[in-house]
Every structure is written in structure tokens, then in C-alpha cells.
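Hey, resending since the last one bounced:
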Amino acid sequence: MGELDGELPMSPTARDDIRPIEEHREYLKLLARLRLGPRLRAKLDASDLVQQAILQAHERQDQFRGRGEGEWLAWLRSILASTIAGALRRFETQARDAAREQSLEAELEHSAARLEVLLAADQTSPSEGAVRSEELLRLAEALGGLPEDQRRAVELHYLAGLPVAEVAELIGRSRPAAVGLLFRGLKRLREILNDPAESAHGA
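The C-alpha cells again:
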């Protein structure tokens, strides 16, 4: 199973204040990884789920009634939540459960809020409110570019909210090793975000 990067048309919905659907791929993949967790990721592929969500977004984009990138992100998250709920239903062979879909959407909203907090922590004036959507997308892309062990540690601790001891257990490392991964992961994220050209180089 793979992605169809580059084969989808540009979204006609895109305006100066709304980025094309494809540019949100890494952001949606990050949220999908957080929602699935280690156990379900062994059975459901986050990249494939995001691809399905992107295809649905293209099909439904004329239904978007929001204004601005913030509402566009929320709309894409709702489609992703529906896609994940559908995959879980098929995986568990259960009937449709509207309450579960709402719960998934709430969890994705919570993950998105944690993402904003992580980014705002490195800004000089986080009190100005929600960070710009463009910066959220950059952060998601930067996370996707980290070495796998650093990315998992950062996502599990800072975005999923798990304590360091539990992170260490999930990634199969000692607690000191997990702390080291978190330190190096955040350091690398700051480097990438402070200098976008850094994303072209390895960690």
C-alpha cells in the first residue's frame, strides 16, 4: 500500500488564505499516527488513511463553507476522523457508531491543540493566540523529517502526553535513552523551524 503523491489535481478551493489540500498531507499523517497509537499502527497504515481522507476532501471540497485556513484545517480533520472511524469499523467488523466518530474528531482536535502548544513554546510571544496554520504545517513536516526514534519519542511525549517512562517502554529504550531522544528531537526541530533550508539535511 502506498501513497499517490503528485497524482492529484490542485484544489480549486485554494485561495490566498487557504492552502491546497495536498500541502496538509504531513499534518494529517501526524494526527493519524497520534490517533492510531503503536498497537493500531501495526494493523492500519496512517499514510493510506490520509490518502483516503485527501481523496474524500477533493470529492467534497465544494461542501466546505468555512472561511480561512483555520476552518479549512478543522474541516480536513473532520474528514480524517471519519476516515479513521470507517477503517476501525472495518477492522473490528462493528456497526456504524456515530458517537465513536465524534470522539475521534475530538481526539484529533486535542492533538492539533497540543501541536500548537509545542510550536508556541518556541515563539517569543505565544500569548498572541493560536499559531499560524503555515507554521503548524511546517512543524508537521519537520517532525516527519526527524529520525524515526526521535520522532516517535517527541510525538508520544509532547503530543500524545505520555510520561517519559511510558514513552521509553513503548519505543523499547531505557528512560535515560528516551530523555536523550526527546532532547535531540526538540533541538533538531528548533533548527529546522529556525532555518527551513535545514530540512534538506539529515539530523
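The helical segments are 25-41, 46-60, 69-92, 98-120, 133-144, 148-159, 164-171, 175-194.

Sorry for the duplicate.
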